[in-house]
Each structure stands twice: as C-alpha cells, then as structure tokens.
Write a structure and sequence with these properties.
177 residues; 3 helices; 5 strands; elongated
Length: 177
Amino acid sequence: MTTMRKLGVALAVLVALLFAGTLYYFMPRATKVSITKTETKIRDQKDPATGETRSRDVGLVYAVDLKTKEALAFRNEDNGWYLKFDSEDVAAQASNFATLDAGETVLLKYYGLRIPILNMFPNVLTLEKVDSEFVYVPWVNMIVLIVLLVLFIWGGVKARRLFDTAKAKLSKRPDPS
C-alpha cells in the first residue's frame, strides 16, 4: 500500500469517526427513568463577539435510571432542530412526575452527552409515562441510519468510479518527452 493510499484511508477513517461521533451526539435516545427533582439555574455566558456576559435560565431535570439505578441529570431547553419549543410544558410534566406521580416509570427521550468537565448535559426532548415492562424500539433512528449507510455506500461507489476514470485518462496521456 502506497503512502498516499495510507493517507487517504486514514483521512477517510477520521472523517467517518467524526461523522459517527456527531450522529451519536445528535441522534435521539430514550431511557426509562423515575424523575426525582426539577430546578432552574441561572447560567452566565460570555458572548465571544462582544465580550458581554449574558444570563440565561436553564431548566434541569434529575432522574434515576430504572435499569442501572444511576442518578442522571438532564437540561431542558428549547431546540429548533427537533422542533421543541415547549420546554416549559416539559418542565411542568417533569415537576408533576417528581411530586404527584413520584416513582412512576417515565420514558425520557433526549439527545446529547453528559460531559462534566465542560458542564454539558443531555437535553430532554419528551417525557412519557409508560409501563415498567415497556420496551423502546428506536424505529426512526434505525431508518435514518439505514438511509445514511445507503447514501454513504452509494457515495463511495461514485467516488471510486470517478477516481478510476480519472486514473484511466491520466494513464492514456502521451508521454511529454
């Protein structure tokens, strides 16, 4: 394998890993939890363009994963990408599950990762009361991933044909000497 080929393979693997990481972060997931508490915290952020400090309210939802018994924390903010403009309604639902329906099994759909060093929390998308025996099957995620895989393979085949055609044309050129 030539050095250029190795470099191309390494670049393709790097791009694939970045793409997979982005998908993992942004694809919605769900877990069965029992919601324990909700609160709102004020977060200060410095605007990089102007240098001004702005404050914003961030809703937090605390829960316990019913399978692992692990304590979890989620943020609750609106998100245009998922057409989520009802964070206050989700906060009211979460508060209700934490007080009136304490101990109920709730299917919590979210996206994102918990990265403590960056103070990042996954964002709640929806809350839904379910039976404790409920099994969540992410049909939409599976369909999206299959479509992306087909597009990726199709793009790879097209790129390979393009490179093979260009290589054939270059090899047919007459020698300039």
